[in-house]
């Protein structure tokens, strides 16, 4: 320190003559203490004396270690590549903890490996050696006169670019130094905190840093620093879109509707003021519900991941014209919510006043290696927000005391979900900002802004709150859910609000309507009657008032359904009525309908709302599949264990813990809610399994190997062509049309309780597979689909309509609608005429006499004869529709004779019995009693034993035949199919013990649900879903079904077999077509809708099933989808692994020491590696990654390799186990209970080995496999030479 600076410093310390001697002495002591601290800083860092004042540095931590010592040559080259990093440091606030008033400023040093190493000298002292270089240095502004315990905010906003390799990121650090500014002297160093750059780029943006100064071995706190640090790699992102589907593009305005529409979708990446890139989809012709399977190219963006998430996507719908195109729909969305889930699900405003549901896949397949965990929530003055302020959570009274736990809330609006902090009391006081995306020209024009908000807020009219309990280690439980409608703001009073702009760091004041209230939580799992959430909400800034009418923003009571089906779902005589009528007709006995799942087609969700089962299933694609095209597949045998194929997905879902209560079966959790809890009922597992099945394109590893082989092709042009061919082949029969959830019941041996499982149909549509969500088994059912009808089923479930067929079907549907409208008009006209005649005759009846009865009867007979003649012409009494007859009635004057009052055996059979008084009610019997001759009756001694003398033989025969047919119809669904025939004419004989299920009631996917109208046992029925008499669909075209009933066809044999083989008609009778056995008089046989079908290649038949399948529409889910991301880092997994191994070792030692037995643990690295390989094989076996033959070979080879490490006279015994949780104490307890005898056995020269393997899957799902092995010397008998010893294999 120079003399000049000392003089200035002394002058500053002596304020004047007014101080007493004691005060001067105290100031002097304080000055001496400060000088000693300065000397300590220089002592630690001699380089301080050599640097300028702006470059002062202090103590540094040493560079961090590399993550792995062994890397491949390719990984090494990637890690050594210099990369660009964008560093942004802002919103820094400091709290003074030094005990004095200071003028603090912060010095940030980014990167560098500078440090001081202390080395011992030969004389016994220590020498300091400076190494490395200092990184980039930045300073904040100074906060003057900050008192103890006070906080102050810095206005400094640092934005810079840092260049470093991955190796440098692993080793370098970010330093925070706090200094106090001195006006006349040197700035004084107060404290420091150093963070590894690897922790920064992998950690949170929001940082809390505790600054302290090292004094010996003690750390004295100086200040708390809170700030935001964005440290992200600059990346070239490619955003791809796949399988975008719009539900309904038809204009509902009948005056301006069109028969066809050729549409395409354009997506533009924009920041609101600047467009970055744009792409458009293929044009789909003649389709009101287009599926845009691919886009011209991906969207390109260069920047950081946070910058990408802050961008917006402008979605526009266009109608392709002969010249140019016309825009008819648009929507702007925030990319953040969709890129985090890889799922696009929104509603687009079309035709100015109509909403259309849009869904699809949007992804960034290739991302930087390091991503910060949370994302910046900057609030800007030129943006519009909905602000939600959480005040209080009154939920603790309903929670059970399960130890230390905290609660947090998730707030969801417009597809964006924000998580609050974790608290341990009722007060939370946290504010969330939900951005409303719009273009800059919309913000500047008030009329455009009003129109935009009026339409946009219709799609997101309420806020949803979810309250969660955090028990630690990613273990959560849901407390309940509450909703708050935006309509509450309509009558709210205006209040003044303030916010701080993130860029300008200024406070902004504004007036806005503010709603403060509370909402009652609801839960299907807990009793939370008195649990509330207190909140407030407002718009920032205020939206146009009275321009935007918030009073109309009410949540719809019903789910969003496809427009084509809306009328029949809501009408009184639509799908629901017909569904129940058909069930009543098919199951007349109450026992057959009792407790069947198809009786009530609505099921309750976790929010106590009821939905159709189709609303619970949605396509969920694993991130492993999304990133598959961008990985290195030069060696396809070294791929990681992922969830790609259907067997791997089934294994993944089975790893999730169960909540197995009977009550939980009736409450269905949506897949996204289920993955948050990571526990659920068997139905929850089945729903998630089916949703993930729909999201994969690989049925098994043969498909995956073929796909990876294409990816490994170095010829880029050929690779693209082969990939396009592979995906085009998959689109013909996508999994969404071949995967179903099944509801039924287990047999008594397996508990006899209600159960759910997943059914898949292979791509050839000739094989059915059951996937159990609990047990690691699957059941293949062959021959359950009539091999002669596989094309029919394929075109019914996966209709691939050509443009010509779409146009033809539309014209046919339009014709049917006109015909239906004409019939309704004629019916109404006839009803009006009949009503007028009845009114006229009623007036005339006043002047009629007693002869009126005879006139009425004569007219009645005339009408009855006409009815009978029409029926006799058909020569088919069984096809006479009784429901029409029962509804018929004849009104003559004031006397009404209803045919439904006639006796059942006399209706429509003989004309001369129509007026039989015994067939009438009391009033009509009195009127008709004298008109007809009474039946001659033989009267016996007892009147109760009177018998009719006249008996008609034909009538008796008809009665017996009709009774036989009625019984056959009623019991048809009870008959079991005792054999099934495959395409190669092999006969399959089913057995009850083949599968653990005894009843199947209902199956469904995202398009439809089908009720089982056959035998309830799932192993003795067919799965011809296209046959309505076997599987009754809930969604079907009633108009088309009536029009497509053909006339009776001649029985033809279109089979291709030889003469000595069975005829096709006989095979049909054995494979689900019962017409060969049916009586011609059977009602259903006469109306068989398939009687004209001649064979599987019949073009007309295939067109019929195509149209039937095309009528079904995809139901959009009622929940917001989320992606499955890994929750556990490699460091966390390694820590858990070590903890499990140590805990098991301690348990083994304790249980053996209790019996006075030694325990010697062998920790040979090569042996452990071979044990790990064996556990890998077991995991691959559970996930179906190899065939049974390959698994057997791999197991044997693994044991042979292991045997090579063991002496010949030793035996090895192994005990593998699997767990789906991390808790080491639970694992130890389970092993001691399961393997107690194995662990306590006494052997000579026994050694032990413990191996653990953790498989970290998506969504926090883990598979923990543990292997305990013991090696001991076998006791030789007199007849056994030691050289012939062999190991005992498990």
UniProtKB/TrEMBL annotation:
<dbReference type="InterPro" id="IPR052299">
    <property type="entry name" value="CEP76"/>
</dbReference>
<feature type="compositionally biased region" description="Basic and acidic residues">
    <location>
        <begin position="1"/>
        <end position="26"/>
    </location>
</feature>
<keyword id="KW-0175">Coiled coil</keyword>
<dbReference type="Pfam" id="PF00168">
    <property type="entry name" value="C2"/>
</dbReference>
<feature type="coiled-coil region">
    <location>
        <begin position="945"/>
        <end position="972"/>
    </location>
</feature>
<feature type="region of interest" description="Disordered">
    <location>
        <begin position="813"/>
        <end position="852"/>
    </location>
</feature>
<feature type="domain" description="C2">
    <location>
        <begin position="245"/>
        <end position="295"/>
    </location>
</feature>
<feature type="region of interest" description="Disordered">
    <location>
        <begin position="1045"/>
        <end position="1094"/>
    </location>
</feature>
<dbReference type="InterPro" id="IPR000008">
    <property type="entry name" value="C2_dom"/>
</dbReference>
<feature type="compositionally biased region" description="Basic and acidic residues">
    <location>
        <begin position="820"/>
        <end position="852"/>
    </location>
</feature>
<protein>
    <recommendedName>
        <fullName>C2 domain-containing protein</fullName>
    </recommendedName>
</protein>
<feature type="region of interest" description="Disordered">
    <location>
        <begin position="1"/>
        <end position="41"/>
    </location>
</feature>
<feature type="compositionally biased region" description="Acidic residues">
    <location>
        <begin position="1079"/>
        <end position="1088"/>
    </location>
</feature>
């Amino acid at each position: 320190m120079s003399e000049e600076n000392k003089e200035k410093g002394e002058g500053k310390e002596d304020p004047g003559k007014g101080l007493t001697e004691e005060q001067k002495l105290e100031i002097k002591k304080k000055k001496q203490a400060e000088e000693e601290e300065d000397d300590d800083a220089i002592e630690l860092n001699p380089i301080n004396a050599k640097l300028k004042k702006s470059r002062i540095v202090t103590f540094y931590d040493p560079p961090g270690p590399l993550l792995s010592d062994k890397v491949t040559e390719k990984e090494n080259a990637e890690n050594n590549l210099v990369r660009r990093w964008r560093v942004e440091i802002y919103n820094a606030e400091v709290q003074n903890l030094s005990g004095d008033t200071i003028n603090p400023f912060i010095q940030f040093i980014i990167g560098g490996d500078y440090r001081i190493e202390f080395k011992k000298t030969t004389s016994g002292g220590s020498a300091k050696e400076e190494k490395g270089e200092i990184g980039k240095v930045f300073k904040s502004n100074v906060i003057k006169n900050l008192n103890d315990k006070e906080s102050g905010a810095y206005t400094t906003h640092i934005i810079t670019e840092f260049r470093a390799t991955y190796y440098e990121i692993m080793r370098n650090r970010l330093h925070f130094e706090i200094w106090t500014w001195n006006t006349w002297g040197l700035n004084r160093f107060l404290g420091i905190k150093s963070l590894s750059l690897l922790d920064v780029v992998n950690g949170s943006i929001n940082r809390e840093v505790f600054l302290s100064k090292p004094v010996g071995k003690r750390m004295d706190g100086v200040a708390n620093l809170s700030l935001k640090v964005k440290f992200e790699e600059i990346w070239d992102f490619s955003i791809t879109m796949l399988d975008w589907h719009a539900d309904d593009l038809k204009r509902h305005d009948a005056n301006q509707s069109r028969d066809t529409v050729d549409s395409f979708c354009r997506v533009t990446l924009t920041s609101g003021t600047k467009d970055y890139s744009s792409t458009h989809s293929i044009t789909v012709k003649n389709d009101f519900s287009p599926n845009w399977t691919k886009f011209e190219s991906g969207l390109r963006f260069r920047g950081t991941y946070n910058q990408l998430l802050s961008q917006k996507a402008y979605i526009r719908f266009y109608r392709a014209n002969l010249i140019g195109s016309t825009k008819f729909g648009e929507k702007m969305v925030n990319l953040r919510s969709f890129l985090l889930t890889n799922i696009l699900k929104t509603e687009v405003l079309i035709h100015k006043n109509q909403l259309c549901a849009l869904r699809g896949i949007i992804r960034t397949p290739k991302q930087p290696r390091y991503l910060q965990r949370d994302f910046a929530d900057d609030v800007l003055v030129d943006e519009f927000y909905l602000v939600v302020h959480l005040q209080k959570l009154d939920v603790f009274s309903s929670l059970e005391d399960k130890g230390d736990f905290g609660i947090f809330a998730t707030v969801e609006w417009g597809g964006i979900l924000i998580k609050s902090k974790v608290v341990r009391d009722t007060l939370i006081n946290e504010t969330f900002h939900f951005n409303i995306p719009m273009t800059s020209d919309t913000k500047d024009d008030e009329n455009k802004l009003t129109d935009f908000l009026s339409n946009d807020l219709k799609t997101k009219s309420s806020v949803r709150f979810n309250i969660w309990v955090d028990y630690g280690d990613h273990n959560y439980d849901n407390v309940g859910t509450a909703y708050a409608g935006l309509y509450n703001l309509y009558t709210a009073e205006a209040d003044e609000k303030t916010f701080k702009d993130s860029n300008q760091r200024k406070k902004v004041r504004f007036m806005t309507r503010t709603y403060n209230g509370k909402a009652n939580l609801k839960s299907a799992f807990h009793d939370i009657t008195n649990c509330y959430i207190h909140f407030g909400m407002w718009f920032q800034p205020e939206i146009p008032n009275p321009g935007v009418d918030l009073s109309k923003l009410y949540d719809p009571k019903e789910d969003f359904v496809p427009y084509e089906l809306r009328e029949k779902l809501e009408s009184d005589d639509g799908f629901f009525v017909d569904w129940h009528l058909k069930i009543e007709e098919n199951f007349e006995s109450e026992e057959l309908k009792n407790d069947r799942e198809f009786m009530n087609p609505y099921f309750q969700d976790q929010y106590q709302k009821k939905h159709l089962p189709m609303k619970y299933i949605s396509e969920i694609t694993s991130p492993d599949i999304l990133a598959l095209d961008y990985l290195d597949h030069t060696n396809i045998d070294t791929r990681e264990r992922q969830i790609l194929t259907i067997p791997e997905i089934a294994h993944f879902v089975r790893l999730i813990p169960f909540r197995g209560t009977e009550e939980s079966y009736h409450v269905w959790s949506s897949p996204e809610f289920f993955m948050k809890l990571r526990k659920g009922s068997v139905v929850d597992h089945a729903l998630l399994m089916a949703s993930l099945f729909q999201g994969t394109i690989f049925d098994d590893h043969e498909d995956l190997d073929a796909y990876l082989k294409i990816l490994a092709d170095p010829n880029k042009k050929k690779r693209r062509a082969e990939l396009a061919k592979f995906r085009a082949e998959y689109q013909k029969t996508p999994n969404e049309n071949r995967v179903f959830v099944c509801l039924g019941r287990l047999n008594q041996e397996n508990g006899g309780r209600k159960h759910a499982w997943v059914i898949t149909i292979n791509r050839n549509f000739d094989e059915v597979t059951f996937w159990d969500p609990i047990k690691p088994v699957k059941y293949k059912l062959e021959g359950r689909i009539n091999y002669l009808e596989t094309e029919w089923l394929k075109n019914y479930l996966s209709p691939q309509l050509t443009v010509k067929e779409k146009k033809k079907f539309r014209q046919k549907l339009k014709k049917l609608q006109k015909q239906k409208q004409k019939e309704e008009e004629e019916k109404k006209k006839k009803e009006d005429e009949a009503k007028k005649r009845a009114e006229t005759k009623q007036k005339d009846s006043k002047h009629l006499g007693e002869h009126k009865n005879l006139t009425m009867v004569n007219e009645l007979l005339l009408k009855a004869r006409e009815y009978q003649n029409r029926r006799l012409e058909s020569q088919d009494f069984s096809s006479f529709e009784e429901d029409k007859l029962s509804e018929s009635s004849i009104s003559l004057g004031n006397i009404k004779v209803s045919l439904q009052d006639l006796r059942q055996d006399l209706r429509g059979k003989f004309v001369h019995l129509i007026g039989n008084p015994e067939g009438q009610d009391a009033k009509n019997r009195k009127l008709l009693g004298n008109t007809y001759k009474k039946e001659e009756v033989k009267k016996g001694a007892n009147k109760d034993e009177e018998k009719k003398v006249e008996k008609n033989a034909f009538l008796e025969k008809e009665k017996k035949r009709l009774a036989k047919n009625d019984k056959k119809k009623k019991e048809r669904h009870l008959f079991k199919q005792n054999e099934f025939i495959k395409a190669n004419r092999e006969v399959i004989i089913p057995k009850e013990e083949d599968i653990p299920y005894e009843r199947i009631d209902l199956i469904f996917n995202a398009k439809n649900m089908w009720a089982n109208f056959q035998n309830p046992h799932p192993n003795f029925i067919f799965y011809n879903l296209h046959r309505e008499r076997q599987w009754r669909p809930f969604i079907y075209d009633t108009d088309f079904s009536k029009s497509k009933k053909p006339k009776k066809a001649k029985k033809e044999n279109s089979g291709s077999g030889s003469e000595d083989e069975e005829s096709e008609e006989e095979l049909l009778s054995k494979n689900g077509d019962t017409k060969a056995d049916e009586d011609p008089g059977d009602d259903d046989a006469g109306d068989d809708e398939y009687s004209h079908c001649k064979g599987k290649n019949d073009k007309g038949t295939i067109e019929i099933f195509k149209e039937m399948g095309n009528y079904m529409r995809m139901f959009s889910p009622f929940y917001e989808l989320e992606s499955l991301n890994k929750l556990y880092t490699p460091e966390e997994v390694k820590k858990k692994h070590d903890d499990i191994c140590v805990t098991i070792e301690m348990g083994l030692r304790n249980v053996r020491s209790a019996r006075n037995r030694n325990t010697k643990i062998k920790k040979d690295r090569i042996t452990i590696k071979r044990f790990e390989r064996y556990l890998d094989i077991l995991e691959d076996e559970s996930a179906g990654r190899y065939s049974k033959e390959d698994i057997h070979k791999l197991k044997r080879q693994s044991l042979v390799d292991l045997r090579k490490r063991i002496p010949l006279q030793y035996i090895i015994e192994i005990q593998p186990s699997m767990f789906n949780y991390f808790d080491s104490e639970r694992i130890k307890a389970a092993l001691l209970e399961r393997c107690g005898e194995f662990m306590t056995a006494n052997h000579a020269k026994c050694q032990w080995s413990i191996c653990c393997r953790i498989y970290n899957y998506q969504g926090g799902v883990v598979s923990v496999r543990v292997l305990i092995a013991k090696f001991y010397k076998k006791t030789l008998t007199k007849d056994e030479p030691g050289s012939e010893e062999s190991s005992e294999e498990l």
